[in-house]
Amino acid sequence: MILDGKWLKRSDNFPKWQFRLLYKGKARFTDFGYGQKEHSVNGRIEYIKEPYIHNSFSKGWTNWINRHNKYSRQEAIYRKKYCPPFKNIFASEASLRNPALNLG
User: Fold this and answer.
1) Distant-in-sequence contacts of 11-19, Cβ < 8 A, 24+ apart
2) Domain total for the chain?
3) Which of 9, 11, 14, 46 sits 20 to 30 Å CA-CA off 55?
4) Contact yes or no for 59/47 (Cβ under 8 A)
5) Which domain holds residue 85?
């Protein structure tokens, strides 16, 4: 996470494991609030242990705030309609665990 050319090393986005590389046809994604989430994966998920630069403020603060307000509305509507099962709190995959942990 980069802001005004500075690395925000204590932000909640580091380390943040995101699915970025795949074989065509081996995974499907769904639009879910803040970006896309894995919907189904045919195979193993492994990790590249190197960070990548993420300039999420490159289009200005207004764009960032509007984008995150949109994401939070989408997630609230989805979570109200599809409450994740309690057992997902203990899931090893973050894409299952995080929605269950954020039910507050």
Assistant:
1) 13/54, 14/51, 15/51, 17/47, 17/94, 19/45
2) 1
3) 46
4) no
5) 2-101
